[in-house]
Amino acid sequence: MTYILSALGLAALAVLPMLFGDYGTGMLVGLAGYVTLATSWAMFSGPTRYISLATVAFFGVGAYTVAVLNEVLPYPLVLLAAAGIGATMALLVGLSTLRLAGIYFVIFTFGLAELVRQLITWFEVNVTGTLGRYIFLDLEAKHIYWQLLALGAATLALSAWIRRSRLGLALRVIGDDETVAAHSGINLARTKLVLFVASSTIITLVGAIQAPRWVYVEPSIVFNPTVSFLTVIMALLGGATRLWGPLFGAVPLFLLFEWLSARFPDHFSILLGLMFMAVVYALPDGVLAALEKFRRKGNGNSATKPAKEANA
Amino acid sequence: MFLSTLFLGLVLGGTYALLALGLSLQYGIARIMNLAYGEFMLLACFAVTMMFTSWGLGPLWGLLVVVPLGYALGWIIHTVMMRPLIKRSGGGGRLEVDTILATFGLLFVVQGLMLVTFGSDFTSYSYLDRGIGILGTTIAANRLIAFVVSLVIGFGLYAVLIRTRWGRALRAVALAPGSAYLVGIDVNKLGRQGFALGGALAAAGGALVSMFQTFSATDGVVFTMKALIVVIMGGVGNILGALIAGLLLGLAETFVAAFIDPGLTMAATYTMFLAVLLWRPTGLFGKAGG
């Protein structure tokens, strides 16, 4: 039943570009992109509580791979190359930081985007001698939207599968208490690494798929820190430990941000920051958890209160 | 060339050490990882620049103005923003994540405010911009002054923390927040003071950096990053460690810029950071197994 419903839902989403015009389809691309970003971010950071602030590092690498390779390789191979590069980068970052306490990971990812941006800029200026690149691919907005939709659906499916598997259970134990996890025989570093690589590869692919929208690409465009920021706040708003949480956070926030950035272009980052803090203070577990709590209170059946959900 | 690079690196490193000290206090004593640290430093940069260009008040006098303001701002932010998070976490591990997220939001707010107020252009002013000869090399007077003032403040702070009763209480909170209250220490009050002291040091660092470096409203992240690297290399809460790590970072940056490529300074910093993390996660001078 769930499968039929999801297939129907997906089909309904897929015909949306036919109903909206160019502007609407452009919005859909952004929306699908952020839903996928937030869901894949939460796949790793939700249960482990290792806050990654490096979303845009992977996103930008994906976009840049397309910019560099789009004239050399056929499009599917370009995407494959982007995924490979993203996974390798995630493996390196993960291997060097995930064995340490969470705080080191956060700090490292905090600067990673800046580091990657500077390295690419340096390489482009000194080795290839050009800073900007053009992407000429025969892809319309709706094609990009369909790809993102497929990737987003695959991400949700993967998330759902991980939650039911031993891997997901291991992750939740790690998030609750690393010492306990280690004592119950969970290989901490490997579990975290697998998830981090999976999540980062998806993020890289989102960047790669969205890249043709820009046409002109340079490091300061694709490594915009706002992307990392938006991803985190969307996932947190919906609830990073829930399967559908990031989606519920991403949709309203994306629409709100579109409106805000058009209305208040100069004060956008101030509003963003304030909203971010509002989420951290008012909805620490996300909007879904808050709704559940509210409903439980409304029913008044506090006697049969279900056991508090694990780290929700 | 070598000698002048060495001096330049040491002088830069002294300022980095001071910057990192503030962050180290905030994280070590108040247990708050402040990702908006660089933004507070930049606020001081802009304040000192404004006082210099519009009122003709020298940066060293400006320093005396912004340091108390930095303390006050730190105090307010701790009281208004951090206190609810500390209460909510109840001393658990959640505080770390919550404060990182809250200060990450604060970073964007302050940065946005600075962009609106000062624009995104690079800013600088010229103060004592003449060379002084030392051991056959010349070094800009403003850099040298910044270095000396950094050292004075750094060692002064060290003396306060080691010698005075207040300093001992601060160190007790940093070492064992769970037991400090058993000996009559008001952990909340001292945490707040530690955070405010960190704010004062951020302001001091900003005022000194503005004397010799161009800066823009979006540079905060880079400064925060440098301070974080120094703190981790030196070991959290370790003042002498931060001093030495700051000097090392300054040296590494200037040598890479002078002999390899200025575009790779950040990469060099990161490589150093990673190497230290992998080799000694508790910092160069931290105790093993922390």
Automatic annotation (TrEMBL), chain A:
InterPro entries per UniProt: ABC_transp_permease, LivM-like
Transmembrane segments: 51-69, 75-95, 102-123, 143-162, 193-215, 221-237, 244-262, 268-291
Main location: membrane
Domain of life where this protein originates: Bacteria
Keyword Heme appears in the UniProt entry: no
Subcellular location, record wording: Cell membrane
Membrane topology annotation: Multi-pass membrane protein
GO molecular function: branched-chain amino acid transmembrane transporter activity
Keywords, sorted A to Z: Cell membrane, Membrane, Transmembrane, Transmembrane helix
GO CC annotation: plasma membrane
Protein name (database record): Branched-chain amino acid ABC transporter permease
From TrEMBL, chain B:
Topology class, membrane: Multi-pass membrane protein
GO cellular component terms, semicolon-separated: plasma membrane
Xref: InterPro entries: ABC_transp_permease (IPR001851), BCAA_transport_permease (IPR052157)
Subcellular location as annotated: Cell membrane
CDD domains per the UniProt record, alphabetical: TM_PBP1_LivH_like
GO molecular function, one term: transmembrane transporter activity
Annotated GO biological process: amino acid transport
Keywords, ordered alphabetically: Amino-acid transport, Cell membrane, Membrane, Transmembrane, Transmembrane helix, Transport
Keyword match Transmembrane: yes
Chain segments annotated as transmembrane: 6-23, 35-55, 61-80, 100-120, 140-162, 194-215, 227-249, 255-279
Record-stated family: Belongs to the binding-protein-dependent transport system permease family. LivHM subfamily.
PANTHER family, A to Z: AMINO ACID ABC TRANSPORTER PERMEASE PROTEIN, BRANCHED-CHAIN AMINO ACID TRANSPORT SYSTEM PERMEASE PROTEIN LIVH
Protein name: Branched-chain amino acid ABC transporter permease
Organism: Alloyangia mangrovi
